[in-house]
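Bench notes, afternoon.
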Amino acid sequence: MNQPNLRIFNRFFGLWLITVLLLSGCGNRFEEQLRQTHKVVSNNITYLKNQLDTQQLTNGLLINKYADALIKQKPDYADIATLLQQESTSQGKAYNGLLKRMAAVSLKPTNREKAVSGLQELQLINTAADVHEFNNSLADVVNTLASLSDGQLAAINVPASQQATAQQANALVGNPAYGNGRQGSDGRSLWAWYGMYSMFNNVFGRPYYYNSWSARPHYSYYGNYGRNRWGADADVNRNRDLSRQHPSKYNKPSAATKSRYATTAKRSSSYGGSSAKRSSSRPSSYGPSSRSSSYSSSRGFRSGK
């Protein structure tokens, strides 16, 4: 190689090496930030586990009280009441759903976008793991027990205008911790429970089809607040798609829902295709659109306790 060509080679090799080192440094920085954030959130989830297993959450205590009362009132419902009691502990679907979301976050992102996506998911999980927020979400379990009591047990933390319907509805429908959506044999979007929660089909005596179910007022903490505050992007997008496919006066998206959906759709588009578009061709998890909550992407992290 002659001298001029050697100089050109060396120049481009130097630029390539600097670029590689810079990218490597960025990758290491993001990985370190992800690891540190993951550790903080893990500590907070461990703290939540302790609070659950030592019965420190008010709604956890109510779940046990309501379950015991329902078993006395309706011994045939003992299995479902006992199953719902697990939600007041770290054996519940809600708590373990947070662990699954944590496990799905990659701590070795291959690019900046995936790193940012992982950090944002950790932030959402951290909000869901906040003891006060998790306690609020357990109201859906309390109210589901109340709905089985023929009015003997009162629904809690429900707006006065929706007390009557909450007393009759299963507040866990639409929450991806307990089931997901699928297409029924008739082509309609059908809610399918996970595992033993399929007992609800017998208890309530009917399957839940999205088009008929969403056309009625069904209050739930997850649907009205939790999804927008800390739900996974995939669930926000799928719920938005389904509510647009089956519009009704009860599932009109609020400003908070639109804001959260816009954020997740933009994020998905930036990372190689909108998950909202991908999900529109197949029914999946669903629930009532949030109508009165606010979502903030700037929630800070609590230090582990």
